[in-house]
Amino acid sequence: MLNKTYAFAFLLLYIASCASQDVEFTFNGFTGSSLMLDGVASIESNGLLRLTNNTSRKMGHAFYPSPVRFSSNTSSFSTTFVFAIIPEKSGIGGQGMAFVISPTNDLSMAMATEYLGLFNKSNEGKATNHIFAVEFDTIQNDEYEDKNNNHVGININSLTSNQSEFAGYYDDDLDSFQNLNLMSHKAMQVWVEYESEDKEIKITLSPVGKSKPKKPLLSYKFDLSVVLKNTMYIGFSSSTGSFPASHYILGWSFKLNGTAPSIDLSKLPELPRRNTKEWSKVLKIILPSAFAAFVLICVPIFIYMRRQFKYAELLEDWEVEFGPHRFSYKDLHQATNGFNEKELLGAGGFGRVYKGVLPVSKLEVAIKQVSRDSKQGMKQFVAEVVSIGRLRHRNLVQLFGYCRRRGELLLVYDYMPNGSLDQYLYSGHEKPNLNWIQRFKIIKGVAAGLLYLHEECEKVVIHRDIKASNVLLDSELNGRLGDFGLAILYDHGTEAEITNVSGTMGYLAPELTRTGKASPLTDVFAFGAFMLEVVCGRRPVEPGAQGDRIVLVDLVLEHWKQGSLVDIVDPQLRETYPMEEIEMVLKLSLLCSHPLPGGRPTMQQVMQYLEGGKPLPDLMVTSMNYGMLAVLQKEEFDSFVMSYSSQMMTSISTQSEGR
Ligand SMILES: *[C@@H]1O[C@H](CO)[C@@H](O)[C@H](O)[C@H]1NC(C)=O
Ligand SMILES: *[C@@H]1O[C@H](CO)[C@@H](O)[C@H](O)[C@H]1NC(C)=O
Ligand SMILES: *[C@@H]1O[C@H](CO)[C@@H](O)[C@H](O)[C@H]1NC(C)=O
Ligand SMILES: *[C@@H]1O[C@H](CO)[C@@H](O)[C@H](O)[C@H]1NC(C)=O
Ligand SMILES: *[C@@H]1O[C@H](CO)[C@@H](O)[C@H](O)[C@H]1NC(C)=O
Ligand SMILES: *[C@@H]1O[C@H](CO)[C@@H](O)[C@H](O)[C@H]1NC(C)=O
């Protein structure tokens, strides 16, 4: 009896001395352990320590029963444990769990959910907590600057981690970082080590069964003696939020002032298996949530990629100097509501034109899409666009700049509220009819703009696409030449390089198709066709009744010969026009439409004729026969022009010289 009492007392003494000296323990499963549990924590029959069960907004704690004497100059310690997190809804974390060193083993006043069972609203972040924790957090709380919903952090007195890292490990074999999913249902091993000499905390994570990675996930220089009291409790805390999850500890070992003994993994209790019932859960819950996750993750990525793709534009080094003239595709996309059909102003052979309002400046613009597949010549082309953008004239539509995309070029112009001239000439009653005074003003305006391009700019600018649909009307119905998509530039005194023949049929000077060389006089030719268009209210080439083509120049010549010019003039004009002026414009048009460039006046001369400063040369109408139809059918053209032109040339030049 006495012996027994003595032995018992000795045992007590022994246990007490152990607690005060270098504590060391190992749990390979928790069957029969005397851990102090609270909240929903429990030890399952197979020895699993379950910190939380599948109820939401609950917490659970498990502490080693005796306090650990860390001493005032906190001793080194090392601990390792195996844990697993099984969320009720796959991929949605409960809240998380933590290894904790606490001055008390009663954390019942702490709160569940984001407080992880460690703190409550009033003491979170306070130095008086004296709590050191390593969190395994599966919910992202922005309030506590969480990295994501799958991170490991070192927390001192606060839910805001002093240091944290995405869950994972540095694989020694692969020499790379491997991600781990804390909520993967899979067991993982953790090492928490503190070196009192270096004052460094190291956290290492790895899949269970893998040897401890050499490089820790987290290493944080910190003197724990600032936080820890002499005597502290060590254990685990966990909580669930709106979604429940089970947080399990399978095994645990600890050693003060030394390396924690290794856990015998073969002796660890098994985690609950996903049974057949759970397979139906897979179908019912996991699949839909996987789909939800897919939607949540992939859709933003998809949207992002689409945005990237949608707004993808080309920007090369050489464009830097054009900065002010370069628009971002995103802005243009925004300006036009995504190139909405409702914003479509027009569409033609060379592209579509949209109305837009630029995001910041609120400037109204017209955006023309020009398809240009070849990269070749783009640099020069853009340079020309920018040069044109620097031009200012009251009869030119301001070209603000451009934007480049793959196979596409966007030109940004000043928006002209009254639209293009062709709408007034051909749209029937949609637009008000223009009287002669208005039309003549437009013709003179366009001529002034063209003269500026040809002779008054720093470089010679050939527009190459003069026609009614490219003449826009400003608020005062002034004609403004727009659409410089085909324009080319070259130095005064030189010639344009040979280019692809571009333009619109009926406006193309015959020599263009032969030589491919644009010149101011090819523009003059097109201007002639344009003037006829404005006076007659007809297109330069129209389909005839027999499937043939009616060429306006020929028609005008015909009427002139027969003395019936009145009949070719736009019927809308008849009542009011001063015939002399109209006749002058018609004759000037014919002069500009001369098949040979030498037969055409320059824009300077055209201006003089239009302003009335210089009378037109007398054209010998009877001998004129342009045969423009032949011009359009090229093979017949060359011989015809050759035989005809000398005659015509002499007649004009002699007339002119006579004055
Ligand atoms: C969770 O644990 C608590 C406390 O042990 C218990 O009352 C509750 O019924 C458990 N819930 C479930 C779903 O197991
Ligand atoms: C929650 O736990 C209880 C008791 O362990 C179990 O009967 C129930 O099926 C669990 N519910 C879910 C959704 O896992
Ligand atoms: C918060 O926790 C501390 C320490 O456990 C406790 O003293 C305090 O009363 C708690 N406050 C609230 C509001 O629960
Ligand atoms: C880190 O820990 C110290 C404890 O001394 C604390 O005062 C500080 O606020 C923590 N820093 C962050 C970023 O949480
Ligand atoms: C604390 O302990 C470390 C290592 O044991 C030692 O290097 C250091 O000097 C000690 N500091 C104090 C203040 O005792
Ligand atoms: C830690 O261990 C070393 C030797 O391994 C010993 O000298 C030292 O006193 C120990 N410190 C404490 C606080 O037990």
UniProtKB/TrEMBL annotation:
Keywords: ATP-binding, Cell membrane, Glycoprotein, Kinase, Lectin, Membrane, Nucleotide-binding, Receptor, Serine/threonine-protein kinase, Signal, Transferase, Transmembrane, Transmembrane helix. Residues 1-20 form the signal peptide. It is found in: Cell membrane; Membrane. It is an enzyme of class 2 (transferase). SUPFAM superfamilies: Concanavalin A-like lectins/glucanases, Protein kinase-like (PK-like). One of its GO terms (biological process) is negative regulation of response to salt stress. Pfam families: Lectin_legB, PK_Tyr_Ser-Thr. It catalyses: L-threonyl-[protein] + ATP = O-phospho-L-threonyl-[protein] + ADP + H(+); L-seryl-[protein] + ATP = O-phospho-L-seryl-[protein] + ADP + H(+). ATP binds at residue 368. GO terms for cellular component: plasma membrane. InterPro entries: ConA-like_dom_sf, Kinase-like_dom_sf, L-type_Lectin-RKs, Legume_lectin_dom, Prot_kinase_dom, Protein_kinase_ATP_BS, Ser-Thr/Tyr_kinase_cat_dom, Ser/Thr_kinase_AS. Residues 339-610 form the Protein kinase domain. It is a single-pass type I membrane protein. Its EC number is 2.7.11.1. The chain crosses the membrane at residues 285-305. CDD domains: lectin_legume_LecRK_Arcelin_ConA, STKc_IRAK. One of its GO terms (molecular function) is ATP binding. Its main location: membrane. The keyword Nucleotide-binding applies. In the C-terminal section; belongs to the protein kinase superfamily. Ser/Thr protein kinase family. In the N-terminal section; belongs to the leguminous lectin family. This is non-specific serine/threonine protein kinase. The lineage of its organism: Eukaryota, Viridiplantae, Streptophyta, Embryophyta, Tracheophyta.
